[in-house]
């Protein structure tokens, strides 16, 4: 199964909002409400920030939000902060596996 | 709750490596355990998962026949063995707990610290 498609990079200034897309098919993103997002700072372990499309785990800032339309899921980060600069990965359940997106590098200008 | 993985490994091409992941602080049998790897400078790649209670496993196509997941319920430890190592297998290998009790999903809420596997002749 192919990886989900994410933009390689996005950027924004402090205080702005950015959105990262994650496009799959109706066999993964479009077929289930089991899309997650992870944040990974350089040299660190990935951290779950969104699960089941739009739910935030305890302790994750409300500046992070998720949504889905058809075969594309999206992660929006509002009020960008310097500490948000990291790599972001989406993942989706499929009937036979879990698949990740290729990752998006967020640069805070 | 935490997952503690075994230490770094250096292996020759063609050899096998076995990484352990010891769980503590939660009911190990009831949560799927996933294995994810990350090659240097690359993204996350899902390899496989194991349901500790039953021992049922699921493998990504790329690892079918080469990766083997097992567990020891007496020590709450999961294992991932990868055989026929190639230079391309050099990566950090993570174990990660599924966030859902009983069910398999895509949300991994607890991660091991990672195990660096180096393949060198």
Could you characterize the architecture of this molecule?
Chain A is mainly β and 109 residues long. Chain A has strands at 9-12, 18-23, 35-40, 47-50, 64-69, 72-77, 86-93, 98-100, 104-108. Helices cover 0% and strands 44% of the residues of chain A. In chain A, the strands form 2 sheets. In chain A, strands 1, 3, 4, 7, 8 and 9 form a 6-stranded mixed sheet that branches. A 3-stranded antiparallel sheet of chain A has the order 2-6-5, with no helix packed on it. In chain A, β5 (64-69) and β6 form a beta hairpin. Chain A starts with 8 loop residues before the first strand and ends with a strand. In chain A, 35% of the residues are buried. The model of chain A has no long low-confidence stretch (mean pLDDT 97). By secondary structure, chain B is mainly β. Chain B contains no helices and 11 strands. Chain B has strands at residues 2-5, 9-11, 17-24, 31-38, 44-51, 56-59, 67-72, 77-82, 91-101, 108-111, 115-119. In chain B, the strands form 2 sheets. In chain B, strands 2, 4, 5, 6, 9, 10 and 11 form a 7-stranded mixed sheet that branches. A 4-stranded antiparallel sheet of chain B has the order 1-3-8-7, with no helix packed on it. The relative contact order of chain B is 0.32. Classes of the chains: A mainly beta (109), B mainly beta (121). Chains A and B meet through β3, β7 and β8 of A and β5, β9 and β10 of B.
């Amino acid at each position: 199964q192919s990886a989900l498609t994410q933009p390689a990079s996005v950027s924004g200034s402090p205080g702005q909002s950015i959105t990262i897309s994650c496009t799959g098919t109706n066999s993964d993103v479009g077929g289930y409400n089991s899309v997650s997002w992870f944040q990974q700072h350089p040299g660190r372990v990935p951290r779950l920030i969104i699960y089941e499309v739009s739910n935030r785990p305890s302790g994750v800032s409300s500046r992070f939000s998720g949504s889905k339309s058809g075969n594309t899921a999206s992660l929006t980060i509002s009020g960008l902060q310097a500490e948000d600069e990291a790599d972001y990965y989406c993942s989706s359940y499929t009937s036979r596996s879990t698949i990740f997106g290729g990752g998006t590098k967020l640069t805070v200008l | 709750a935490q997952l503690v993985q075994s230490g770094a490994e250096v292996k020759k091409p063609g050899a096998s490596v076995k990484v352990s992941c010891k769980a503590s602080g939660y009911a190990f049998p009831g949560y799927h355990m996933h294995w994810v790897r990350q090659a240097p400078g690359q993204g996350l790649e899902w390899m496989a998962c194991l349901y500790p209670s039953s021992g049922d496993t699921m493998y990504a196509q790329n690892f079918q026949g080469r990766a083997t997941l097992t567990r020891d319920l007496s020590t709450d430890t999961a294992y991932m063995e990868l055989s026929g190592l190639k230079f391309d297998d050099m990566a950090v290998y993570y174990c990660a707990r599924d966030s859902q009790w009983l069910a398999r999903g895509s949300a991994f809420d607890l991660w091991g610290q990672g195990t660096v596997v180096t393949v060198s002749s």
